[in-house]
């Protein structure tokens, strides 16, 4: 991998971290971000890096086995989670945060139902991975399972994770997830939120496809054509930004 590509990835991660902090999605060191660099390497934030002032030097580059190939700092303690997501779902970028509303909702439900059509960009309903200690293989495995067919998952008593084809896409998925969790929380405070049923979800997907908005994910209960592919954005899938329907 060229040093130019590595430095570009480190700079892109640093800028995204500062942006996540500025938007209140990460406070202090409470998150980690990674970005694929070529086929076999991943740039990832170092352990203990503060997001609001994160610099490219605080981004290390590892191979898919977790060995450092560029940088001086140890990668985040959630390295195994990030690498597991790359190995199983092959995204371009992964964002993990302790965003306040996503974390709060994950304290009280096992799954956030698909209460708004924009949640189809995340794969529909969002599962909550059972709690396990940070940095453990048990946590990584629980989150990987919760991400099946999804671009986002909540982590009980911990936070949230999203992935996308690009880093801006993954950041946008994190924002969308936080928005959906706030929506669900506000609705649940005054009544029982109504979820979109499978027919309604499919109609949205068909409408988005007809209008050329791309591959809004199919609900995995339907097994329509789109779900036969991995239901996450890849180079062949538009990013969330590209496929987002109008509000
Ligand atoms: Zn965490």
TrEMBL record:
Pfam families (UniProt xref): Aldolase_II
Class II aldolase/adducin N-terminal domain span: 11-185
Molecular function via GO: aldehyde-lyase activity; metal ion binding
InterPro entries reported in the protein's UniProt record: Aldolase_class_II_sugar_metab, Aldolase_II/adducin_N, Aldolase_II/adducin_N_sf
Region entry Disordered, spans: 212-247
Polar residues: bias regions: 212-230
Cellular component annotations (GO), alphabetically ordered: cytosol
SMART domains in the cross-refs: Aldolase_II
One Gene Ontology biological process: pentose catabolic process
UniProt entry keywords in alphabetical sequence: Lyase, Metal-binding
Protein name as catalogued: L-fuculose-phosphate aldolase
Biological source species: Parafrankia irregularis
């Amino acid at each position: 991998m060229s040093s130019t590509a590595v430095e570009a990835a480190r700079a892109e991660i640093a800028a995204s971290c500062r942006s996540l902090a500025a938007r209140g999605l990460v406070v202090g060191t409470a998150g980690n971000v990674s970005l694929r660099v070529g086929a076999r390497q991943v740039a990832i934030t170092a352990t203990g890096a503060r997001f609001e002032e994160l610099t490219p030097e605080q981004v290390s580059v590892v191979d898919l086995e977790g060995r450092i190939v560029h940088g001086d700092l140890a990668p985040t303690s959630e390295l195994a989670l990030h690498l597991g997501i790359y190995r199983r779902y092959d995204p371009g970028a992964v964002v993990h945060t302790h965003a306040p509303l996503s974390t709060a909702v994950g304290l009280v439900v096992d799954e956030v139902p698909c209460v708004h059509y924009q949640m189809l960009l995340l794969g529909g309903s969002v599962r909550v991975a059972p709690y396990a200690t940070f940095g453990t293989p048990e946590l990584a495995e629980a989150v990987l399972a919760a991400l099946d067919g999804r671009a986002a998952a909540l982590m009980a008593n911990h936070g949230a994770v999203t992935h996308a084809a690009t880093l801006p896409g993954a950041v946008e998925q994190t924002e969308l997830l936080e928005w959906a969790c706030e929506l669900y929380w506000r609705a649940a405070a005054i009544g029982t939120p109504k979820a979109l049923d499978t027919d309604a979800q499919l109609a949205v997907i068909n409408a988005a496809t007809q209008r050329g908005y791309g591959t809004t994910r199919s609900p995995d209960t339907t097994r329509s054509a789109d779900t036969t592919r991995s239901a996450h954005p890849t180079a062949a899938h538009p990013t969330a930004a590209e496929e987002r329907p109008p509000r």
